[in-house]
Design a protein that fits this description.
This protein is an all-alpha fold. The N and C termini lie far apart (42 Å). The chain has 7 helices and no strands. It has a single domain, classed as Cyclin A, domain 1 (Orthogonal Bundle), CATH 1.10.472.
Length: 113
């Protein structure tokens, strides 16, 4: 049996479904994960997926608490925060323009050190 490489996008549909996210939000998460691959984010794929979900839901009308994202993704809140801190500087480059055009990216929480 051959084991393949695990990628963040392998988990997205299940995580987003568990959180009750709509089709537009899921598409935005998928595109953000693909864009994030251009940067050297040294985190596990699951942590990256959870952090991107957290990032995008902050811009959504249907915000999701970090606790709920941690439960849905089985990633610890602290791990999500650390991955978010690594992704945050790249937010303007990885978030889909069509998704953020009518949203204020200033609503993204500044990562705590």
């Amino acid at each position: 049996m051959e084991m393949g490489t695990i990628h963040a996008e392998d988990y997205l549909r299940r995580f987003c479904s568990n959180l009750g996210m709509n089709h537009e939000e899921i598409k935005a998460v998928q595109e953000t994960v693909l864009m994030s691959k251009e940067f050297d984010i040294r985190r596990s794929p699951i942590s990256i997926a959870a952090a991107i979900i957290y990032m995008l839901t902050q811009l959504s009308d249907a915000k999701k608490p970090l606790k709920d994202i941690a439960l849905a993704t089985t990633v610890a809140e602290g791990t999500i925060k650390n991955a978010y801190r690594d992704l945050f500087p790249h937010a303007s480059k990885i978030l889909p323009e069509w998704y953020i055009k009518d949203k204020d990216t200033k609503n993204l929480s500044s990562p705590k050190a």
